[in-house]
Amino acid sequence: MNPLQSIYDFLAKSDPVTSCDLVVALAGHPQRKSFALALFRQGRARRIILSTGRYEVRHTAEMMPEIAQELLALRDATLPENRHFWIDISHEQTTVSRASLSRVGTFEELHAVAEHFKIQPPRTLGLVSTSIHLRRMRFCCSRIAFFRQINVLFWPVPEVEAYPQRDGWWRSPAHRGYICSEFVKLAGYYVVYR
Q: What is the pLDDT of residues 168-180, one digit of tens each?
């Protein structure tokens, strides 16, 4: 194996995709939401949450025209610094609400998920993100008591949609920068949330 692929693999610590009670796609790359929606349509989850940051609202509205008007109206009624939303999808209904995040960031986003579901926690939770984001997510979950009490699975978007991709990431300056920034963030999280 190419040692540069091992660097990627260290960050991309994932679990096999199985069925679960709830899937949460973290804010960020749109492929996360697409993958969570695909899992829902395949019957892998009874409920999904699409976490949507302030800069993703327009794209999410285009992806889901059935909730576009509601999402855009909520965005327009919310101060910019508070524009983080959850699209909650089940077979019974789809709702849009403002997520209660104290700050922007992976730890804060996962903490908000824990707070939201602490009264009725799922037995099995699938967390969807970009491959190289998974190790940092695991670290965050290890520091939040809620996630230690349930079965949490960490799922990457499919490799064909990943950014960056495992094979050849070192050839692109942008991809090298993305990998390096993830290591810097991971080190910072170890310091801040130790």
A: 999 999 999 999 9
Tokens of residue 26, six digits: 């973290």
What is the model's pTM? 0.93
Residue for token pair 């050849």:
168
pLDDT in tens, 19-32: 999 999 999 989 99
DSSP characters over 131-190? GGGHHHHHHHHHTSHHHHSSEEEEEEPPGGG-SS-STTGGG-HHHHHHHHHHHHHHHHHH
Give dist(CA 53, CA 80) in Å, integer. Answer: 10
| Angle subtended by helix axes 106-117 and 134-142, to nearest 10 | 50
The SS3 assignment for 86 reads: strand
**Token code pair at residue 124:** 């099995």
Give the span between the Cα atoms of 70 and 11, in whole angstroms: 36
